[in-house]
Design goal:
Blueprint: H1 8-15, H2 19-27, H3 34-46, H4 53-60, E1 65-70, H5 76-91, E2 95-100, H6 105-117, E3 122-125, H7 135-142, E4 147-150, E5 161-164, H8 166-179, E6 185-189, H9 195-210, E7 220-222, H10 230-240, E8 249-252, H11 255-267, H12 271-274, E9 276-280, E10 294-297, H13 300-316, E11 326-329, E12 332-334
Parallel strand pairs: 1-2, 1-3, 3-4, 4-5, 5-11, 6-7, 6-8, 8-9, 9-10
Antiparallel strand pairs: 10-12
Helix pairs in contact: 1-2, 5-13, 8-9, 10-11
Length: about 350
């Protein structure tokens, strides 16, 4: 059986109205009386009428689609951010095309080129851990293509940016561990190319400095793939606990890093198993771990929403956008048993 699509012409014929009247009523035009609008909208809803996206894109010279580039959809933070993106995009009549860089700058570039070739109206990008040179994106942006950066941002492009307060999240997490009596706090983080790495590392260092604890560079480990390579995290953890003087707590600076590190710790014994722990992660299962895990939780959904609002405003602006803002949303420190000093 062939599916019959209801058109404006069908609605006009059924209601004995002109197609132009129906079209204006569906758009909510002031030229159409409230009674006629109500009649048309109710009939359209009853017949499950939906605007033809191809016809709309031709008329408006827009695809009504936005492209999204993230490192990994399976990452708790990004899956929640994408939900926020979709909640705004779909309500404003946009489709969302999602791609993954898997922390590769080459794949990120291919994704962007593909999305642009698909004639998306704009891009939401969270940079890969390998990305340091944004010249390709800058060239695209200078041609007037709308781009908004979120989570992992860069000052190389003057555009809207939305991120979490990474510095204060890390500062409060580290200070909490210090207040619990931990003194040798290790920090496992991602690539130095990333803004989130630098901001969280600075928050960690400043919290130590406030409490007169010297920064020990041997307690800072970089996992350039952000936890996507389990072996990389395992080596970092083992390197931390190999010396005689071992860390008494671990602070991880990423969602994937935190969950992978927790899995490694659970398999270990001795000082590793006993170390305090707190991490940046948006997992909804943190309280189901044994012990329940303390986390710095980011407002991922809200970050996705805010970034999409800014992008759609750029797309729909009648004039070139020349004033930009960087939105920094607060994090939430959730304290559970893993970061509390154990009593002997």
């Amino acid at each position: 059986m062939k599916f019959e699509v209801v058109t404006i012409k069908d609605i006009a014929k059924a209601l004995n109205l002109s197609t132009s009247t129906v079209s204006r009523a569906l758009r909510g035009s002031y030229e159409i009386s409230p009674e006629t609008k109500k009649l048309v909208l109710e009939y359209a809803e009853r017949m499950n009428y939906r605007p033809n996206p191809i016809a709309l894109s031709l008329k408006e010279q827009r695809s009504r689609a936005i492209g999204v580039v993230v490192s990994e959809i399976a990452n708790n933070f990004f899956s929640q951010a994408i939900a926020g993106i979709e909640s705004i995009a779909y309500n404003r009549g946009y489709h969302v095309i999602i791609t993954q860089s898997h922390e590769s700058k080459e794949r990120e570039l291919v994704n962007i080129q593909h999305l642009v070739s698909r004639s998306v109206d704009g891009l939401l990008i969270s940079l890969s851990s390998e990305t340091s040179d944004l010249s390709y994106l800058q060239q695209l942006y200078e041609k007037g293509f709308p781009v908004v950066l979120f989570d992992r941002i860069s000052n190389q492009i003057d555009t809207h940016k939305v991120t979490a307060d990474n510095y204060m999240g890390a500062f409060h997490a580290t200070e909490h561990l210090i207040y619990q009596g931990f003194k040798r706090i290790a920090h496992i983080t991602s690539s130095t190319h990333l803004s989130i790495t630098r901001e969280r590392l600075q928050g960690y260092k400043d919290a130590l400095a406030k409490h007169h604890i010297a920064v020990n560079e041997n307690l800072i480990k970089y996992c350039n793939h952000g936890g996507m390579m389990i072996d990389e995290v395992e080596v970092a953890v083992e390197d931390l606990f190999r010396p005689k003087i071992k860390p008494d707590a671990i602070f991880t600076a990423g969602d994937r890093l935190s969950t992978i590190c927790l899995g490694i710790i659970k398999q270990k014994q001795g000082a590793i198993r006993k170390a305090g722990f707190i991490g940046f992660t948006n997992t909804n299962l943190a309280d189901l771990f044994s012990p329940p895990v303390s986390v710095v939780r980011q407002p991922a959904f809200e970050i996705g929403q805010s970034a999409t609002e800014l992008l759609t405003s750029m797309i729909e602006s009648k004039r070139p956008v020349t004033t930009f803002e960087t939105k920094v949303l607060p994090t939430n420190l959730i304290i559970r048993e893993s970061s509390l000093q154990q009593q002997d």
